[in-house]
């Protein structure tokens, strides 16, 4: 929706592909001449009544579908605004008769909104409840409290209705968007929730404290059914006593038992700044808004929504719509300046983060240790985030293949978000308003020239892997329109779902579904015959089982936007012609089970046959990990002082100041127990945590002095040869100008008892803002040398900073980069490093990951590092890489690698042919780099930044592009001249997936993407070990990033993940609900530590959040424990069958971290173990000791 005349807008980007129309479309638009439905929701604007005087002028009308005369055919009610609403009787074969006048329904100029079909008086006939809103008439004393009362049309039989809202207590006058009937108090009858949307004089996007006390005009209402009085049910407004008190400009509602406690909950999607609401039923007549416990961010201008199980896991997911356009031109014409300060202000005022795009909330199952679920927002991964000015979302299996697809309506007659109109026309209008000399005529005249969002609706096919494919054109959705409410039903009783869509200024769309013409599209349709007071079984849960598959629907017909779908539950079955069983759980928890049911029928299931049913439900017990942070004495919260990099470089894709902390593990006090260090941010000391004999920890801050450096990676290693680990800390971030002394790294020497002293003379001067550090005896002299990664140059992103190799000269370090590998002086923005022998020639090589970098392989050729990335087969891997670990994941005797990338839950899906492109230069000669990110739309490379963002960084572009419309059409070669582009830095990103690099031998690698669950967010932390005791290496991943700019929004869908390996290079994800491993925040460093009892502790650091510690019980029997000697780097394990496996010890791996050196494995099947050091010396480890 609009932002009280465009106060705030967001944006992002997406690649889309052209599609050719298929002659045999799934849907066929049937003409009004055939259907008889000639309804058009026509609007007439003038100077007194238009989008500028009534902000919801274009919100449109709803659709109500139901069988009003019980003839087995679904009838249609279409809501009109200025146009009279109409009732159509289905005569069969998609032919309808307008019976409005004869029915007794009269709704001329009534501004009908939501249409709800319900048998409200339990007489077996569907009644019609019409929600109304609309502009206030002239002379209204209190316009903020005025609205048209809702209307209730009681079905008299014989297709006659009488209006009785007041008699039932439902003549509420409060700008109602939609009504949803449900039994919230389990007394057997149907209550009703009213979604409201009342404009106030104070703009709805003005940042102010949230109002949750019922004082806001726009507060939803709950009416309780108090039973029959004087012949009909009477409803009472119980909103206050039920705690329905939070404000919100409501546009959509879903009724669903989200926490599976048997009680219906309410989800409301709200427009403008107001957050969405998730009212959890407290089982005592009250509700509690718990949305922040379930979701991590929301759509900004949320409109319609729907709830359904999109991946057939038995858990309900949510979609909510917004306004993000798909194409480049409309986006550029819509979006203004990114306002990060406002974004932060909203959160300080208690608002959950919101971003302008459709959101798809995927249900992860129950949070470990609880009985309620938590969600990951995956709309961009799924490909449904950008459908323009959208209204209704309807999940349903439109092609009968067993997976729920998604239909979205959209359109807006006058695009008053157009920046040229807003800036140049509305500015005059607002000046007049402020001066008190308002003359609407010029603005209204200008408004007539503004084009609308006149585009086709969307149909997405569910691919079965959490992604959707835009099939709109293929499936027959190719007619531009201004569409609002929509509903589905099998209108012609042929076994598939047809669609009815209410349009502004155009006749209603009646889409006939032709899936019955295609083979292997079986179905099962279920009608529920419930109790007398709930005759259609609203709230019942139906599960259909077949061939190890499950489909689940919770019955509520109030879906999408302002509409009611049919009461029959529809299950597509694809090739399945018989289902194994059907389980129905009724609202009062009685149940019945039906078995061996044939497909292609309408099955009636009656409540009277139900029996008592007790579902055994309890919080899932984690089987791998238990979170024990506080009980082990680990109470550390990382605090990052706010620094807004966008004020220095407005075009940055993300903050550069929120990249820590890291973790390093080692025995710092010589007691044989492993301790760890976690980094601190600017003005905050890092801390040691020292382990005692009980496996508990005591915190010891590194320093009590003032500290201005920001810790990034750290490393515990013996720098001076005294046998005790010393501490190296990389200084990074971007708070200070380039070359600040606060970017100088630090080396602290250990006295052997865990006391550390900073030696400022131990390191060469290097004031590069860095990231990671890793160690190896590179020169084979018996001590550990270092690679230190350069991460960034403040103010000059994406300039490549210096990375360095530091030779250990008896505890003093010398920079030998130019002698060993001059390329490292400008190799890129390095995020992680790993010393490893990737080609098994006995010389330790170096692998680097980085932003806008390929996975970079530097081969050690007799003590010199040479970039051999191209010859490895990985030259085409440029991405936004974060981390890397080593392991023999396919158990073939060489080392493979897993690398963490930004993931696929992002706007673009770049490729080798159409990569995301960075073009950087000081175009305006201001002394600061201008980093312009560009993306392909079609075959043209466009900057992704809105005009105002570009001009805030490069002021000269204001004159070059006076109008937003001109900038919107400009490719990168139009924005800059050939001369300006000539010497610009060009970087690309073509790979965003986190991957396994399978070693093929001879220095060659194959890329294999990790499973879908690992692609839902950026992967930072990685550790590897055999966590499930099956003999194969597994992975633990953490990630997310809260650093992106506020237009595209933070990446927060990742929860941490256990991937169980199969020993062949394949991995199976284990959900957090099953594994017990959950890291929902901005995950960064990740390390493994060995506890005093021999079990593992997984340490997960989060930026600006608590460090988490997870205990993992090592269940392997008859174990071998190997603690490597100084400079030992590799173990070769020979199995009894002659096969060989490799294990490497790394000083530094993953992201900014260092894990335990202790290596454990089962004795079973092991013949012998050889251990190698950095000089090539070998020792045999006694297997049977």
Automatic annotation (TrEMBL):
InterPro entries: Crtac1 (IPR027039), FG-GAP (IPR013517), Integrin_alpha_N (IPR028994), UnbV_ASPIC (IPR011519). It holds the Pfam family FG-GAP_3. It comes from the Bacteria. Transmembrane segments: none annotated. Keywords: Signal. PANTHER family: CARTILAGE ACIDIC PROTEIN 1. This is Repeat domain-containing protein. It comes from Dyadobacter koreensis.
